[in-house]
Amino acid sequence: MSWSNVPTIAKIGAVIEVVNSFVHDKVTMASIINRVIDDEGPAVSIAAVERDTGLSKDTLRIWERRYDFPKPLRDCNGERLYPRSQVEKLHLIKRLMDQGHRPGKIMGSSVDELNQMATEARPQTLSMHDLGATLRLVRAHQVSELRQHLAQILMKQGLQHFVLETVAPLNQIIGEAWMRGELAIFEEHLYSEQIQAALRAAVSNLHQPSEPPRVLLTTFPNEEHRLGLLMVESLLAVEGATCIALGNEIPLPEIAQATLAHRADIVALSFSGAFPPNAAVAGLRELRSALPRNVAIWVGGRSVQRVRKAIPGVTIMQSLQQVLEELKDWRATHPAA
Questions:
Q1: pLDDT tens readout for residues 254-264
Q2: pTM for the complete prediction?
Q3: Can you list the domains of the chain with their CATH numbers?
Q4: Closest to 199 (Cα-Cα) out of 243, 241, 162
């Protein structure tokens, strides 16, 4: 019998049955969500999880498909809601990733197992004695031993902590030793090359999806030092940012052209203490005028840190830790990126 031949009263009854079924489904979903809220506190949105954990929405969705975790609930509008227990586990996974773990290897572990791994892999801050040992290897020209020594520290600390707690103070120790005449130029270069090799290898071994923002990293002409820029690239890469490294000494018009070609959201530049601050400021103003307003410019290094007046449209990083804070702020203000 066709629908047109069904009596009107029967049609109305069928529609009422469908509506009741739909309402029942929604009530059932609401009751499930309320039960989770009662047990764990309010479930939170994907935007809240992104802000709280530093994991982007894209990463959360990719993991959901690839690893079957997290497993968000859905509200009546189909939006994801994450129970607190899952957010806690995501925090632990993010911490372990910062220490060098691959997400696919730890995603199936329980919270207790993740806590145990985090305790065992807690970053080890080097003492001045350990830092001094590195300096002695440089002075003794023991290249293989130096390479192995740095690799062991990197493995213990994880990439971000290695950059912040080992490479940064080592750079200061090596620089001061060179200024005092205790290191030759070739010895300082040896140290720099070994550190850069360790960082490049670590960045290339990261296995996680590249996500916004897209960051173009380079230096102005006559700026030969790249270690600082590589340290920033390492910090950003661990956080899943898409890093586009151009190398050193790129002419300003080429930087602007590359920014557009690569659809970069941020241009990151490094200025060593040897670079004239006035030249840095003039170049940054020129670059700012050549770039779209929505492209951020992040700069760091001793040269620009000595600049007293703010440069409109340019963010001067006073520390490496600030890079991570700025990244978090950028993602919070660009949720749809």
A1: 999 999 999 99
A2: 0.64
A3: 8-120 (1.10.1660.10), 128-203 (1.10.1240.10), 209-333 (3.40.50.280)
A4: 162
